[in-house]
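Please complete every field before forwarding. Incomplete forms are returned to the sender.

SECTION A: IDENTIFIERS
Entry label: holo-362
Bound molecule: magnesium ion
Molecule representation: SMILES string

SECTION B: INPUTS
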Amino acid sequence: MATKEEIMQALRTVMDPELNRSLVDLDMIRDVRVEGDQVRVEVALTIQGCPLHNTIEGDVRERVRSLPGVREVEVIMTSMTDEERGQLTGKLRGGQSSLSPLLDPNSRTRVIGVASGKGGVGKSTVTANLAVALARQGYQVGVLDADIYGFSIPRLLGLKGHPTVLDEHTILPLEAHGVKAISMGMLVEESTPVIWRGPLLAKILDQFLEDVAWGDLDYLLVDLPPGTGDIPLSFTQKLPKAQLILVTTPQAAAERVASRTATMAQKTNQSILGVIENMAYFICPGCGTTHEIFGRGGGERLAKEADTELLGRVPLAGAVREAGDEGHPVAMGDDQDPTGQAFREIARKVAERAPATMMARR
Ligand SMILES: Nc1ncnc2c1ncn2[C@@H]1O[C@H](COP(=O)(O)OP(=O)(O)O)[C@@H](O)[C@H]1O
Ligand SMILES: [Mg+2]
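SECTION C: PREDICTED COMPLEX
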């Protein structure tokens, strides 16, 4: 006959596919009864009508039935009471007094906004690559896609599906390549234009800032929309302690649009962590020669103007775009690819200039 402990032990390996944690850890196993070779397990789901109901039920049944001495398994599926769910959300918050690492003044999460003067310079590409590079270095990383109209984080990280909403104030981010992320793109279809206006948009951003259960993050990267519009401005005002990374291309630096963002940061007293020059040069795939097609020195000049450091230069390469389209950022690759190396080197500099404070606790 199997004991209750053996059954609980076996159930430790059954994960909630959405929350990515064991049912036992999530206190979802309400009751286990053993009578001879018959076992009855009661599972409390987080939300009623959970779409993964069948998967979880099947996994529980299979795992318990594989134990010696068990012949029949009855799985009863119920849902959590409001009180149980409240306890669970508390657990998922990772002990942070406020849900969001953003708004808690005592938060130890480093919040880094990725900004640019104009679109198309590779801001989102840089955000996604930095995130996976930092995650590879062992940090807990989140990405908040604050580019509500022009979201591209889900595609860049290969994230499909919708985030689970546990309750009004608990949105669970999706996760890929060790990075947690939230984006407007997870709430609407990619082809649907986002036509919401001012107040509603501001509300979405507030929800992203306040109600996403990130857990304990070392870094939260925020992909800001280009320019110095409402969202970048409200980001800098709401999170005065956040730091900024400015992304530019040699051309954009020459057009001086990039320096407007630097000026905004200086006006709001926000610290600029550094500048990244993207599409800085082209390496000829045939002969390996480096071509600085758009001229040189743009990133350095911007860094000087913003009184900060040039964190690195990323070459222009077809692989960067292709990898982005496939949802596998180049920074994940462990080969000799110079673009992946550039992003990983920049991530090391970021961690050096903005050291994580939570790593020590793990
Ligand atoms: N280093 C690079 N080499 C080649 N293509 C790049 C590079 N960085 C970005 N891209 C491509 O340029 C386009 C714009 O990049 P994106 O990250 O969406 O810019 P932004 O977020 O600033 O608007 C995308 O198609 C992307 O794949
Ligand atoms: Mg973008």
